[in-house]
Amino acid sequence: MAEIAVSMRNITKQFGKKVIANKDVDLDIYHGEVLSLLGENGSGKTTLMNMLSGVYYPDSGEILIDGKEVSIASPKDAFDLGIGMIHQHFKLIDVFTALENILIGLPKENTEKECRKEVEAICSKYGFELDLDKKIYDMTVSEKETLEIVKTLYRGANVLILDEPTAVLTPQEIEKLFAILRNMRNDGKAIVIITHKLNEVMEISDRITVLRKGENVGTLLTSEANEQKLTEMMVGEKVTLDIARDFVEEKAKRLEVKHLTVKNHDDKKVVDDITFDLYSGEILGIAGISGSGQKELLEAIMGLQKCEDGSSVIYNSTAHGVHELVGLSTKQIIEFGLHLAFVPEDRLGMGLVGNMGMTDNVLLKRYRKGAGPFLHKQQPQATAQKIKDELEVKTPDLDYPVRRLSGGNVQKILVGREINNKPTVLMTAYAVRGLDINTSYAIYNLLNEQKKKGVAVIYVGEDLDVLLALSDRILVLCSGKMNGLLDGRTATKEEVGYLMTHLKEETNGKE
Ligand SMILES: Nc1ncnc2c1ncn2[C@@H]1O[C@H](COP(=O)(O)OP(=O)(O)OP(=O)(O)O)[C@@H](O)[C@H]1O
Ligand SMILES: [Mg+2]
Fold first, then answer.
1. Domain total for the chain?
2. pTM attached to this predicted model
3. Whose Cα sits closest to atom 6 in ligand 1?
């Protein structure tokens, strides 16, 4: 095998008195390999890599680069040593162009003209597509990520660390990224990738190192690994990865969506004449390549989007009666028991307050629901405790600021809170984004429990295998149109995949 690029020896990092994020970790990264760093939410992956990129300094242990011991006290030190990390939250300046962003912070002798030439050379060498004159605010997430990688390479990175780079990309964009990573690997770069998606781990990496509770529990060759084995290493015990699908006999029509249409700023229909019914006791899966109107569809039902004339959403429940939702405020709709757990690209932007702990974040939601001026902290505390137990949220205590928790743990709180709000209709979009495999299954179980209780569940997901295993029916979106409504028990992956990408001539709504 090639030479070792980075050696971490006996690395320990503790936060405060209670959290040991990394304990005596040894890790080798070779030139010319892709190493997957795998582990449950909160197992210390990001923290370990942050010590290579100069964000944190280890409490003890040593780091060797190309065999020489080094001290990495700042991101600049890391850059000087050829280490670059792509974080989940990009650090780009919105009003600047791509090229300007690459030049920020560099000495004056880097002229625009030379930089452009060099960056273009990097792009053609590895296969990046990047418009250097585009402003950041006009860019998609994928373009921003590409820019971050190119910027890092321009600064001379030989070791490249990517923290959950695929979490917000479409399957097509992921394929492109992987092709680039392979080119970089063949060029001798050392690459570390963090991802929770085991199929990606199996596809892109050469070796896999697994962390559990901050410790390195083993490294194996990808060719000798499989998903079951990896999951057991992560969790530390045997796990069964099965999604149950119960059949609920008694069903009542909860939502009747008719001709629902939403236009975007450019007057383009992003939700185009969608018509379907939603029943209690079912999970309706929504499939589609990302950006096919999933987000807007759910938001339209929740009163968060302006619907075009002719759109109608009839809500019917024993407790609340029959109502037309189009035209009602989101607040009223929530009061009817409709809940939306949408996991956005920026988790902390979505109704969680970073400086507050779990209890206060649960309280926040209850208060918004109009709990009245007398707030009792007891009930939210019990709810918070319940979410913590069910989803195994790793937090020192219920009042610990959520912004200090690992990415996946923040998300568990978000999803757990919506599920615990006793919904009659529960809509979730990308609920398992960034969650480790074990927790993902915990979420599937929770959704199933909700269904059995008679909740009408809409599940927007990215993983077709999961959609096919979980859903009673699958609605396929393609370019904002409803391109099929299939029985989840008989549909095949090929069928759904085809409908996601090929618009039928005759679409819905033409009764
Ligand atoms: N700045 C910080 N202050 C206090 N605790 C922290 C800080 N950063 C991380 N932690 C804690 O250290 C532990 C490891 O977190 P880390 O972010 O490294 O996990 P991770 O493996 O990247 O998880 P995920 O898959 O959810 O992103 C967690 O318990 C987290 O709460
Ligand atoms: Mg992380």
1. 2
2. 0.80
3. 404
